[in-house]
Write a structure and sequence with these properties.
This protein is mainly alpha-helical and 457 residues long. 74% of the residues lie in helices and 0% in strands. It has a single domain, classed as Amino acid/polyamine transporter I. α6 runs antiparallel to α14.
Length: 457
């Protein structure tokens, strides 16, 4: 069986995009990274990132109305630039989803261990086993029933978001910010490099939005894909953007004067800002609930990332990378072999690297590599849509499609110069090396560089 079954609806598509973005993880972890770069201007950084990502999302939306394909950006780039460039894009996108999935697994173990510690049980290094178990459970769900997996992702992420919004409401009620205080968070901070700090912070905002296009990998399995996939992707970007700006503002407010001692500097160094905020403005019970919500959100990210990685691997296999990867399970209707191999590809580095780096560092390293690869994809799809818009004589739209990629290229430049401290200075070169390796794969499998998309557009 070589064709995926179209049985998924809009909620499953939204569930996949939302789970790969994992907004709860941004609130629990990524906001501190943006604060390190941009200081109190983190909400402004997220607002700029939302606009840039919305423009990128429009390019994905436009292509999803032309092409419904499990390869997502692989198919979009192939449509415009041909099979060779398309395979390079698909190969790069595979690194993105593999990186996010294995990174989220570390957070599942980390936050599950935090919940257990609050209950008086210290599992120590066994968080590794919890993360590995999360991968295996995600494999079972993605292997057997994508409809169930999609709805489960949506429920888990929705419950976690409600818990965070409740905490933010408590902070606003107690702090009662003035209009001037609110506007201060939407201006560059001179103490954090002004616009330079915002530029570096944009890398982490892209990390926060990364994965919104995950729904596109369900293009062959979703009912009415040219309607539901665009809604899922663009709606996820806009909804997540509003959430990120709001939560970043509330966290800065909660750490501000009269809040947690140390202020913005303490937030930038916080390993678990939601915990500290919950203890200051709520209760230990609320802190435990938020840790549990983050763990479940991270598991949703594992499941969503695995499903997306498997479908990209399925599309590449079907195009000639390995024909058996392009087979569909006769009973479950899923790309079962691709799901299994994707699980192996995320489990091996996790077991080999995470025990030595620790959960937080492993998440930071792998998600950064994945984001850098994804920036290249976003630039490629934006460039492809610019060309398609020009061919269709939509000059203004074609010019607009350039804006998002330019902002992302600026953010990418800021990851190289000035060079971050070791080992973060290595990650751009890891992502570039993986992308260049695609040329070697094409050399070994020449058909990949000349075969058209295997399914009708």
């Amino acid at each position: 069986m070589r064709n995926l079954v179209s049985s998924l609806s809009l909620p499953e598509a939204v569930g996949l995009s939302l789970s790969v973005i994992a907004p709860t993880v941004t609130a629990a972890f990524n906001i501190t990274l943006v604060v390190q770069a941009a200081g109190p201007a983190a909400p402004l950084t997220f607002a700029i990132g939302t606009v840039a990502m919305a423009l990128v999302a429009l390019s994905f939306v436009a292509f999803s109305r032309r092409v419904s394909h499990a390869g997502s950006a692989y198919a979009y780039v192939t449509f415009t630039f041909g099979s060779r460039a398309g395979f390079i894009a698909g190969w790069t996108l595979l690194l993105t989803y593999l990186g996010f999935t294995t990174a989220f697994a570390a957070l599942v173990g980390n936050f599950t261990a935090a919940v257990l510690r609050r209950c008086g049980v210290d599992i120590g290094a066994l968080w590794i086993l919890v993360g590995a178990a999360a991968m295996l459970l995600a494999w079972w769900l993605a292997f057997r029933n994508m409809r169930l997996a999609g709805r489960l992702m949506l429920v888990l992420e929705g419950a976690a978001l409600l818990a965070i919004v409740a905490l933010c409401a408590v902070i606003l009620r107690e702090m009662r910010p003035t209009g001037a205080a609110a506007l201060a968070s939407f201006a560059p901070s001179a103490a954090h490099g002004g616009w330079t700090g915002i530029g570096f912070g944009l890398v982490f905002t892209v990390l926060s939005f990364a994965g919104f296009e995950g729904a596109a990998t369900l293009g062959e399995e979703t009912v009415h894909p040219r309607r539901n996939i665009p809604i899922a992707m663009f709606g996820t970007v806009l909804g997540a953007g509003v959430f990120f700006v709001f939560v970043a503002y509330c966290e800065i407010l909660g750490y501000g004067p009269g809040g947690i001692p140390g202020g913005i500097a303490a937030l930038a160094k916080a390993d678990a800002p939601l915990d500290e905020l919950a203890l200051r403005y709520g209760s230990p019970t609320l802190a435990t609930a938020l840790d549990l919500a983050t763990a479940t959100s991270a598991f949703s990210g594992v499941l969503g990332g695995l499903a997306a990685a498997a479908r990209v691997l399925f599309a590449l296999g079907r195009a000639g990378l390995a024909p058996k990867l392009g087979l569909v399970h006769a009973v479950h209707g899923t790309p079962a072999l691709a799901v299994t191999w994707a699980t192996v590809l995320i489990l091996v580095p996790f077991l080999a690297w995470a025990p030595f780096s620790g959960a937080s560092n492993y998440y930071s390293y792998l998600s950064t590599i994945a984001t850098l690869a994804l920036i290249l994809i976003y630039v490629g799809v934006g460039g492809a849509e610019m060309i398609e818009g020009w061919r269709e004589r939509r000059r203004l739209w074609s010019a607009l499609c350039v804006v998002g990629p330019l902002v992302l290229l600026w953010a990418l430049y800021r990851t190289v110069y000035p060079a971050p401290e070791f080992p973060n200075n290595l990650w751009p070169y890891v992502a570039f090396a993986w992308t260049l390796a695609a040329l070697g794969v094409i050399r070994m499998r020449p058909a990949l560089g000349r075969s058209p998309l295997p399914d009708p557009l």
